[in-house]
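Please, structure for the following, as tokens.
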Amino acid sequence: MPSIIVVGTQWGDEGKGKIIDVLSSQAQHIIRAQGGNNAGHTVVVDNKEFKLHLIPSGILHEHTQCYIGAGTVIDPEVLIREINTLKEKKIDVKGRLWISPYAQIIFPYHKLIDQYEEEQKEGRAIGTTGRGIGPCYSDKINRIGIRMGDYVRPEIFGREYKVNFRNKHFVMKKLYDKECADFEESFMHYSLCADFLRPFVTDVEDMINLAIAKKEFVMLEGAQGTGLDITFGTYPFVTSSETIAGGICAGAGIGPSKISHTLGVVKAYATRVGNGPMPTEVTDSSFMDHKTARE
């Protein structure tokens, strides 16, 4: 069976969720390998709508094993909310959803910094979702981020979070004249979230590579689109992760030689979210006047 990557070939919102859902009916393993809850898929199954931002949409097929890979950034609150929502809709994730210990964690200070930075940019704002994705990836590159494997270990998390919280508080006070939330309240809340997620954390990369070695059908679902790739997209109006096939391989811990096919999804018209160049966009007054006249 093949190992397939599904990517968007524009700026996201190409309808990848529909294609992924069709392929998920055959796939045994589905991996989300990059991005965070700034992306997502909306899938309708049996007249029920499911909106997933972190969990692979393949979770809706009960025969699948689903993974959140090392290249992702995870907001624990969002992930727990998705798990609970699926449970309410009779979708059991126990024993089917796994999280890489290498994935990075988004905390409240990431979201605050994201919003404050956008405000400071004024006319140069990128149009981020304000969900802390960029600042979390920045911490990863700066080698000060907290990974899932450390997050679920109380003795490590307590030490690392205290240092990061103190440093972020200092930065926000100096640069934006803002403050973080209360440390103790924040720490207790995120410790409880860590307790909830601990059973899902395992050696995802080993599981995926073993599945490929056994020639089982493995699918990697991309988030966003190639036009938003941090390196090859319409920089600086891009996301903070590698959205192309090679980046997805790295985020999943899979060598490119193990991929059988890359499937690019395109739609007949182009759209994009946030700011940035959009060659087909028409905003002049003559077009708007003509549109109003026709209506």
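The mean pLDDT is 89. The beta strands are 3-8, 29-32, 41-45, 48-52, 65-68, 73-74, 97-99, 104-105, 218-221, 261-265.
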